[in-house]
Q: What sequence folds into this?
């Protein structure tokens, strides 16, 4: 039986739809006064579509990923060219510098990943991606500069299965820093990941899942440590931390697909699939890959739902899962 997948063409269509949808937009902006109440496009010159800032960032990431896979789509390239410009990204950088807790760490992580993916595509010979990589380099530098002192000051991790997850954010940030050649940042982030998580054992799988989760706290932590620990340390740590990982592979069901928080559970199936695929490779455990594909097969039909609460973000996690095999 063939592995479950979403096509590049489907993802490209989803990205185009999102990058041209300005409303509704969930604006998270701490206004200093009446003169600071502004429209999203004024605040965020590049990332003012796709329902919210972080989803807009990872829809850009998905667009670059799809094009890098070999899919041809001139309309998508044109849309990315409109927003991944030096001037637009300079506006985003200025906002992040002025609001250093904004989108911490989830949006930061996707921003760094976007820049890293642009650089990888540029290195593979895509001249458009080369422009995007140059434009987004200051964005990545900014979030990495913000991330290191933030996590260094953290007394304990945030273990939620939502945007505040320390483990999920650090995992993307570590890999992006490595891919961008930001070796000092990557080393500092790995050091803090080890400090926060290496002593954890016997994760309580029975307490997953919460009703609004789109991330598995346990699998996010294991995924982070797979990117952090030396290969010879990982198996023993993993077995002590998560002795029964298959306990986290029961698909989650959404009762109300029009509820923006309830639909997080669709994303949970997809994000678990991605984490399990990466862990299967790191640990050479085929059973984890089989469980990942079962979750992916269960979760992919959610991409066909018409509600914007699903379409503005789920495709990114589906693509991440299938490309993590």
A:
């Amino acid at each position: 039986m063939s592995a479950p997948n979403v096509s590049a063409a489907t993802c490209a269509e989803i990205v185009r739809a999102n990058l041209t949808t300005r409303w509704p937009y969930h604006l998270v902006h701490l206004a200093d006064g009446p003169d600071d109440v502004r429209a999203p496009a004024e605040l965020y010159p590049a990332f003012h579509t796709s329902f919210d800032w972080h989803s807009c960032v990872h829809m850009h990431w998905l667009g670059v990923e799809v094009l890098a896979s070999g899919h041809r789509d001139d309309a998508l390239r044109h849309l990315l060219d409109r927003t991944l410009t030096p001037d637009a990204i300079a506006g985003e950088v200025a906002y992040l510098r002025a609001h250093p807790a904004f989108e911490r760490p989830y949006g930061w992580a996707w921003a760094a990943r976007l820049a890293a993916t642009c650089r990888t595509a540029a290195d593979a010979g895509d001249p458009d991606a080369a422009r995007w990589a140059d434009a987004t380099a200051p964005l990545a530098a900014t979030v990495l500069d913000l991330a290191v002192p933030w996590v260094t000051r953290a007394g304990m991790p945030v273990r939620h299965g939502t945007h505040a997850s320390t483990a999920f954010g650090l995992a993307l940030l570590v890999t992006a820093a490595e891919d961008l050649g930001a070796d000092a940042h990557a080393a500092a982030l790995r050091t803090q990941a080890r400090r926060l998580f290496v002593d954890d054992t016997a994760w309580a799988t029975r307490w997953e899942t919460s009703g609004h989760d789109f991330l598995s706290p346990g699998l996010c932590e294991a995924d982070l440590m797979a990117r952090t620990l030396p290969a010879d340390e990982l198996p023993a740590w993993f077995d002590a931390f998560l002795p029964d990982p298959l306990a986290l592979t029961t698909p989650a069901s959404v009762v109300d697909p029009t509820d923006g928080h309830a639909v997080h559970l669709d994303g949970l199936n997809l994000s678990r699939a991605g984490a399990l695929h990466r862990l299967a490779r790191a640990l050479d455990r085929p059973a984890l890959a089989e469980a990942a594909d079962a979750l992916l097969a269960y979760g992919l039909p959610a991409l066909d739902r018409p509600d914007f609460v699903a379409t503005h973000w789920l495709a990114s996690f589906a693509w991440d899962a299938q490309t993590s095999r």
About this structure: The chain has one domain: 8-26+40-322.
